[in-house]
Batch of 4 targets.
Target 1
Amino acid sequence: YLEFVCPVVAKPPADRPTQRGVTPQGPEYRLMCLEGERIETPLYWPKCTTPRVCPAASGPDIRAEKTGLSNSYIDVYEYEHVNLTCSDSVKEIPGTILFSVHCGFNPDPEAEEGLWVEPK
């Protein structure tokens, strides 16, 4: 694959000086290499945009009393995730996989925030 990667955004957050843009397809766009040193030609080139934040305050409600997970979100950007941990160390099972909540791409160009993806 040949990876199309967005450039660093014009005004990155202070804590992320090398933050790159994102596309509707993800943080990178892969093009398949074809025979004869050619690459596939996309129907359209994706537009790079500045990733929008999914604020911690609007993270999905994970009911700690039912799930045993802490509701401790942090701000993340589109295509990033937050790992939630057990709210009670007694309930924690050693060696278990972390439970992740994803900040998805918001297709609305006017929106100021990414979209939290509700866990299934």
Target 2
Amino acid sequence: FPVPKLVRERVDLSSPEELTSFGVDEQRKTVLNGKEYLRALKIPSTPQDLNEGFETFTRQSETGDLNRILESLKEASVDLKGVNVVSFRNNFNKIMETPYSRDSWMISITKS
């Protein structure tokens, strides 16, 4: 039997760009354009060894709320015509690193 030729459709990818931002306050409410909630990591000085127990660490569920992203885009009057995907920024890293990683992951998808 002849092997069928693989047909690849060209996919144009654009560079990601920030359209808007949001933060989450202490009461877990969305703050639109809340850049003050996007602080840089400051590593605390602790008397404990933070590597202790790392071998037995179990990653917790990282489910997010896409509604916060969509609400922020709506508030910023971002035109979503022609937009195919809205995602958290790390999801595409997870997909692309899959062949090289032993970590398991899950992504929730919603079609509107």
Target 3
Amino acid sequence: GTRGGDLVHGNDLHLGICSAGVGVNINPNRFMMLTKANQLMGLNLCTDSGAAENLRFYDCHYQGGNQAFVYDPVTRQIKQSDGKCVTGDAKLMKVTMAVCSEGNKAQLWSFEYTYF
């Protein structure tokens, strides 16, 4: 999930508590989804890996590239074509991109609802 207030064009994606309750997320700033078009989105902005190692929110351009993500339900990793995975950096409290490594707990993600 994201930290409240992250969903602003150009802001970094931070780690945060997804939901205080079970099943329903009452804070829409902490809701992330992976679309059928392989975009990792928060409300109306897409995450983009083009800015150094940090994921940032930008307008969706629908051209893939830095905004294309694929979820592997077996490894639970969210991957890009360059061999990097979405990684939670607990020290920085940010979401970054790092070389995919099976078994890396910082690269394990799950989705409460799946439609793929």
Target 4
Amino acid sequence: TQNRMELEFYGPFDFRFPFYAYGHYKTGWFKPIYTTYRLWLHHGLQDSITINQKTYFALDELKKSIIITPNIPFNLTRPTSTYIELRALFQPDTNYFIDVVENPFVMDIFNQSLKSSSIN
């Protein structure tokens, strides 16, 4: 006896940060209780990018695409290929918004460019 099985296949997700995965991000603002947060990379991040025939580290270009309001200095590191860490001196009792601006130069390993996302 043969049973028919149907499978649906989809291409890779867009290259964006899935802020929806964190319950406290759904409120429209982000009230941090730590100084370091991990942001998941669906497909990883290319190590370097080329803009106008110059090579840059992708993490440096990615940092230009992240906006924290109110504005505070922050650093990005990539401990593994699957996430980055965002470190900042977040102040107690302060609400923050994090926006990631679309950037055609920051690419994942499938050559998809970074799409915009935010927690607001």
